[in-house]
Amino acid sequence: MFSKILLIVSLSLISVFSLFAQEKGDPKATEIWEPVPKIVTPGFDTKHPMPPPSDAIIIFNGKDLSQFQNKDGKPAEWKLNAAEASVTVEKGKGDIQTKQKFGDFQLHIEFREPSVVVGESQGRGNSGIFLQEKYELQVLDCYNNKTYVNGQTGSIYKQAIPLTNVCKKPGEWQTYDVIYTAPHFKEDGSLEKPAFVTVIQNGVLVQNHTEIIGSTAYIGKPAYEKHGKGSIKLQDHGNPVSFRNIWIREL
Questions:
Q1: Which of the pair, 158 or 41, is modelled with greater confidence?
Q2: Which residues of 164-187 are buried (b: 16+ CB within 10 A; e: fewer)?
Q3: Same domain, 25 and 127
Q4: Which of 3, 38, 93, 117 fits a 20 to 30 Å CA distance from 101?
Q5: What pLDDT is attached to residue 8?
Q6: How do residues 152-200 score in pLDDT, each as one tens digit?
Q7: Are 209 and 233 within one domain?
Q8: How far apart are CA 175 and CA 204, in angstroms?
Q9: Which residues partner with 232 through β-bridges?
């Protein structure tokens, strides 16, 4: 009986300390480190861009950033590489987002981590793809790089751990194919139906109709706020992550 009481007290104290940490603004309070998703070697060829379907909206064709802007509505200023039809995060230039806004969609995007490895954990090849500007699909170099599992590549950041780690080596192109259903809200602003997302990375399922529980939060718990259609936002996290061949289909 005493051992049971001690266990209950211990768990209660852990909960209290966790809540206290979140209230004080500790980002580590929402990090999960185990269980670690198994590593799967993809058989998917990512050397060449995947051609878009006939009804796709081309967000980035490798020639210009005319479909993007910064958060203030000014032209996007990331670094273009016309020879390989890619764009690379320009440190300090800020996030970029599509001018067009979307609800339900199918998104295809290809990304590449820097070939020269710098940093570790969340400081290594970090970027992100924000669905409707609010819900982050993590981009990170997780090839032989230990980090909290709800923050690794393929995660819905600090919400959903990926089913597998299917990352390719730094310097190799990788793909995300995303099926996204937007949340619905009632007239009073309360949530009627949450958002759901399915993600295939390099041909392997990493999120299977996963419920999104709110806007991405670095500190504290995610929560929903009523919104309509939103942009696709790419994150400037200070690392030179590259993107190419971005297209979307409205559903």
A1: 158
A2: bbbbbebeebbbbbbbbbbbebee
A3: no
A4: 93
A5: 41
A6: 999 999 999 999 999 999 999 999 999 999 999 999 999 999 999 999 9
A7: yes
A8: 10
A9: none
Diameter over CA atoms, the chain: 71
Rg (CA), the chain: 19
* Shared domain check, 88 and 20: no
Q: How confident is the model at residue 23, as a pLDDT?
A: 52
37 shares its domain with 64? yes
- For the segment 76-88, the average pLDDT, to the nearest whole number, is 96
Which residue's structure tokens are 């991405």?
216
pLDDT category of residue 25 using cuts at 50, 70 and 90? confident
Report the alpha-carbon distance of residue 150 to residue 29 in Å, rounded.
12
Same domain, 210 and 194: yes
- What domain range is 11 assigned to? 1-30
Please count the structural domains in the chain.
Answer: 2
The answer to whether residues 238 and 207 belong to one domain is yes
Give yes or no: residues 73 and 96 share one domain. yes
Residue 61 burial class via C-beta count within 10 angstroms: exposed 0-12, middle 13-18, buried 19 and up: middle
